[in-house]
Design goal:
Helix content is 60%, strand content 0%. It is mainly α.
Amino acid sequence: MNSIVSFILASPLTPLEHAARHVLNWLHTSVGLSWAWSIVALTVIVRMLLVPLTVKQIHSMQSLQRHAPQMKEIQKKYKQDKQKQNEELMKFYKENQINPAASCLPMLVQLPVFIALYYALRAFAKHPPGGATAVAHHDFAWLHFIPSIADHTTSHWGGFVLLFVYVTSQMASTLFMSATADKMQRTLFMVMPLVFVFVIARFPAGLVLYWVTTNLWTVGQGLITRRLMPKTPAPSLFEKRSSRTPPKDDGDGGGNGAKRTPGSPTPQPQSTTSSAPRKVRRKKKAGRR
């Protein structure tokens, strides 16, 4: 069964696997980096190529934050009919040119690279570049606490340190990626790394190193974005609203969303004391009973 799944996944990704191996070989032989730092450099190259998609992701997240109050009103209005709620939200996205899938594009594009690197590292474990000489000289070691980037992450104590950094960096990146999610979704995203760590522990250490590097890139990207990019203001009262947006009181229609016709007199507030007669109290004369 595992061989069938591997064949299905490997066949379309074989060119990408060869490309990943060639880039790693070039970074190691031509640039002079170690195999572990070559993986870090490969991660940086991939994230730099994804900068255009990252910009779209940031704009999509800002647009979602901007229209979050209107979207919550739609969800509240159709909370009893989920199908109608989804239809209205899709229409709202279309009218306001919102693409919620744009926030997931960088992650989806990285997934084939992740799988291709997995097969490349598995090939390194079976047939290491440089043969037994490279293994004897610890060419696949990293920072003196991971014996080999092609071995399982938990095969050495350094792998547990790498897993801890993975969980921490994944949670930190989730804080920036799930800014528009509700409380339940954010909690789920924060718990997922704790569950997924038991799966990724069986992966090659180089693969965990790739994911840790991309998480740290995401954290740095989020910090720079919050510092440099201005916050998107909330929609004003005079902005064009969607047909599905519930009317709001603008102060001219008595709280029901209706606007006053130009030229019509402004209603004056009625006085509460004009209808009551004024009582005059007379002073009593001295000596009169």
